[in-house]
Design brief:
The chain is mainly α. The protein contains twelve helices and no strands. The longest helix has 30 residues, at about 1-30.
């Protein structure tokens, strides 16, 4: 009996330590004036968002909103790390709901035009993770489908393949046919703002 109590206490202590550490990171991010420190903390938070053990704590600390706020920043590193964090969180249904309740679709969609390939890849993946019966019409908006069709012409295999997965998994054949016909004659790769890296 003592052993099981010790194990529960140990798990509880670990959980408490984890929460406190994440809380310290969020506070450090909010308090620092150093751009480099903000980038480092945000990158750490994005990495912690990958571990399911951290998700409840990150929601309590409103980290999904912090990541969404980064999508409006001018510094591309902050945008990239914020988008990466959202990508990691968005596979979890509770985090997905938090992102959706905060207007995430529009903010994430705006980053499909990022000059950074990692940001665009994370945005596409996040949009796929945010698909529900209620959100599907917004995520399959013709403007997003046109963007994915343009990405499917990219020289980047990662971007080309991920956009193809999006088109296959998220869209109906009818939506694709309609989007393709709307783009007919104007889908040359010339002039498409694709990510640089």
């Amino acid at each position: 009996m003592l052993k099981s109590f010790a194990m529960r206490r140990s798990g509880s202590s670990e959980s408490s330590d984890r929460f406190e550490y994440l809380q310290t990171l969020v506070t450090e991010f909010q308090d620092t004036d150093s751009d480099e420190a903000k980038e480092q903390v945000l990158a750490n938070l994005a990495n912690f968002a990958y571990d399911p053990k951290n998700l409840e704590f990150l929601r309590q600390l409103q980290v999904p909103d912090l990541f969404l706020d980064m999508l409006t920043e001018e510094q591309e590193n902050l945008v990239e790390f914020g988008m990466g964090g959202l990508c990691n969180l968005s596979a979890d249904p509770d985090c997905r709901d938090a992102i959706l309740q905060s207007g995430g679709i529009e903010l994430i969609t705006s980053r499909l035009s990022s000059p950074r390939e990692e940001t665009v890849l994370s945005a596409i993946t996040t949009l796929m993770n945010l698909v529900t019966p209620a959100t599907r019409p917004r995520i399959t908006d013709p403007s997003i489908l046109h963007c994915m069709l343009r990405f499917s012409l990219s020289e980047s295999p990662r971007l080309r393949n991920l956009s193809a997965v999006f088109l296959q998994d998220v869209c109906s054949e009818e939506q694709l046919d309609r989007a393709r016909s709307q783009m007919a004659g104007r889908h040359s790769a010339v002039g498409i703002p694709l990510p640089r890296d």
